[in-house]
Design a protein that fits this description.
Elements (H helix, E strand, L loop, with lengths): L19 E6 L2 E7 L12 E5 L6 E5 L3 E7 L2
Antiparallel strand pairs: 1-2, 2-5, 3-4, 4-5
């Protein structure tokens, strides 16, 4: 199992994500993984956008299953 060396801290809980990969494009990082968190609100069935846990992060939830985390590369 490969581990990711990225700027995403343990606050995201990504060590528990079943499968994920990181894409670095210039000054940006995009982490794609399955959404494993329990959502306590009604989620839009196609796309849901929100702020991340840490400042400067944006989370995009696609089709209630795939989580994209956008951030600056470190």
């Amino acid at each position: 199992m490969a581990t990711l060396n990225s700027g995403f801290g343990s606050r995201f809980g990504l060590e528990y994500a079943p499968s994920s990969f990181l894409v670095r494009m210039g000054k940006r990082e995009i982490l794609v993984c399955r959404d494993f968190r329990k959502r306590y609100y009604t989620v839009n069935p196609l796309i849901e956008c929100g702020t991340g846990i840490e400042p400067g992060y944006v989370e995009v939830l696609l089709m209630r299953r795939w989580l994209l985390i956008l951030s600056k590369a470190r």
